[in-house]
Amino acid sequence: MVMRLFLPFLVLLGLASTVQAQDRDVPYWATIRASELNMRVGPSADYRIDWVYHRPGLPVKVVRLMEGWRLIEDPDGARGWVVARLLSPDRGAIVIGNASTELRDGASSGSDIKWRVEPGVVGVLGDCDDGWCEFSIGERRGYILASRLWGAGPP
Q: Which UniProt keywords are given for this protein, alphabetically ordered (predicted)?
């Protein structure tokens, strides 16, 4: 009986934390939560769809808030409005540049190279320190130069 009364409270608490995580000072980093996300030219479902994302985990920069909508900027610099609930406050990053880069065993250029990572690869961003960031791509984990990641550093 107590669990039945407590469960709705947990659900509401979870929803509140998701909303609260998306209602903070801009700009801030977020990631795409949905497998399909419509970017619109204005902050309403009445506006035309300008782009459709099919990349959960893709980092975006939130630059403006308007009720349940967020004006985002993607790694290519495109801007548009998306529904806030389809974004996650989880940190992610995308590899940038014109050539592959190394995912290393440690946070230094002298550390062993574990894998080579191509531009456009999306992963989960961990802590960043002294120009290096923890970066995970599925089960592969290591360190990558922060300068090779869009989504690392201040938004």
A: Signal
Strands 87-88 and 69-73, sheet pairing: unpaired
Phi-psi region of 77 (alpha: psi -120 to 50; beta: other; left: phi over 0): left
Domains of the chain (ranges; CATH) run 22-90 (2.30.30.40), 93-150 (2.30.30.40)
Give mean pLDDT, residues 43-67.
Answer: 97
Cα distance between residue 150 and residue 122, in whole Å: 10
pTM, to two decimals:
0.83
Q: Please state, as a whole number, how many other Cβ atoms lie within 10 Å of the Cβ of residue 127.
A: 10
Q: Which residue has the higher pLDDT, 52 or 22?
A: 52
Residue 152: DSSP 8-state: B
**Locus of tokens 């992610």:** 92
CA 28: distance to chain centroid? 10
25 touches 117 (CB < 8 A): no
